[in-house]
């Protein structure tokens, strides 16, 4: 069963290829949604997929790409939006 997560990642997560790397991870895990930089320096993502795959994605989000320094990840569940692919904006 597909579920939808709203994810906010704090730390050194902008300017370190976090969003592009998140897209690669999402594509491998068949997750759709989007990632965007926020004005407070965080990255906000919405992600949809099978719970098992989203759980793996969350594990990835807690580490991020090599140059990132993730301090905190906030996750909340919300209704499906039926995204067709994962996009970076």
From TrEMBL:
Occurrences of domain Acylphosphatase-like (ranges): 4-89
Catalytic activity field: an acyl phosphate + H2O = a carboxylate + phosphate + H(+)
Family matches, as InterPro entries: Acylphosphatase, Acylphosphatase-like_dom, Acylphosphatase-like_dom_sf, Acylphosphatase_CS
Claim: Hydrolase is one of the keywords in the record: yes
Superkingdom of source: Bacteria
This enzyme's EC code(s): 3.6.1.7
Molecular-function annotations in GO: acylphosphatase activity
Active site annotation, chain numbering: 19, 37
Segments forming a coiled coil: none
Pfam families reported for this sequence: Acylphosphatase
Alphabetical keyword list: Hydrolase
Entry's family note: Belongs to the acylphosphatase family.
Protein name stated in the entry: Acylphosphatase
Organism of origin: Candidatus Daviesbacteria bacterium RIFCSPHIGHO2_01_FULL_41_23
Lineage: Bacteria, Candidatus Daviesiibacteriota
